[in-house]
Amino acid sequence: MERGSQLALVFAGLSVASAVSARLIPRGLAWSLFAGSVSLAIASLSLRFRACTAGALGLSAWVCALLSLLWGLAANLAARSDRNGGVQYSHRSALAAVTAVATLATGLGAAVAVLTILSMRIIYFTVALVSGSAGMAPPAYGFRPGGLGIIGLLAASTGLAAVRTRHGAFATVFYWLAIVFVTWTCFLGVVDAPPDSERFHTTVTLKLAAALVGVVAGTVLVEGWLHRRRRRRAAFSSDGNEMDPPVVFGGLRTSCGVVALGIMLLCCYHLVVPEGGGGQHCRLTAAIVAALAFVGGSALFFLVGRRWSVNLAEVAMALMSLGICAVAVITVPSRPMLLADRFPMIFNAMVVGLAVATWLWTWLATVWRRQLDDGAAWTTSGRLIPYAERFSFAAACLGLLLAAMMAIWPRLPRIAAMDHSLGRFAAGLCGNLLLLLVTLWCSRRLSWVTFHVLALLVVISTVGFVAVRIAPFTVAG
Predict the structure, then answer these.
(1) Is pLDDT of 409 > 70?
(2) In this structure, is residue 473 part of a structural domain?
(3) I need a surface site. Which of 19, 191, 209, 375 has the fewest CB within 10 A?
(4) Which residue(s) pair with 376 in the sheet?
């Protein structure tokens, strides 16, 4: 008999002894020993399937997910039986409490294993993408299509717990399970990536950004539907005054903000590196990035509109500004094809986009200020006024930073393109002048000393741009 089978028999006997002695020792201790023994017995029997699950980590994830579903079913049955019986502190109450804890413990174990496997895959993927060795096959660490089954088991266990407890925090668990599911799905093809896989890897990151935006937008739509249904029930109720208490989804709004930050990083990456790594898909990639940024920012603004949150408002404004920059990048020509030669044009387009974003947030702040009630904000747009003004200053600072870098671009070491043609000089000068006009307009509207100083720095940057970039055209011969 194999060692795993022997251990399974030992733990099975211990579980039977624990169940029999439930009337002799404290109920909680007896059922805890029973749950632990059954779990260890199942884990021992699963050792023979180690080769089918790609190592110990994958096996641990499968076993914990199955146990979480098993104990979730037991907890639901025990809780339902206990409610029907109505006997306080009975064996069924103790069993329901113990199985609920076992569900949580084994579910957390499966989640830790799944996140470890996925994290290793993301780390190897990032290293391969940065180092240019995308064709090398990294260690699997249990990363297989079967991992989606583990996530499905965890979702079923979470659903049972949500039915049993009626707690809104499980919506956040479902949200993160959806995030892990789409991320796992996007990275599945990386295992068998072709040797010449630069385009393949950039496609994976763009698909991941689109999938994350879809999850965030879908979550916001579902929450909005629940909110409208609650208001509709209150409108058609008998008294017409009382509303059902709002369902609190603990941590869901913060989770949406965290994922939105990841979306913003992916979109920033694809603003500079288009799908395929070359110039042939630059405009399509920029259009996709703009759509993703606008959809993600709009979703967060809907959340802010339903309940005020400074952090979500700032992330939403950042995504909207990124979308404006992506629209500006769409105007960049498709040639030259080499990415290194395209950097100056992309950065110059981003200067224009940041200038437009600076003007937009300042203009919106001045328009929203008219809605104030004797200086007091009573709407979401009114609360956004100071943050929109600060964000316009931040966007102008980023635009100045890029403009200053473009001014000294030919003097930078290890650049692929000098960017000294007459057309590029004219385009860069127009970007600097637009940023200067916007900062002067904002300093006049807001009367901020910081904007006055920033406008002066933009003037210095524009003069430096002309002085450095005009040199090739003044050389004799």
Answers:
(1) yes
(2) yes
(3) 375
(4) 373
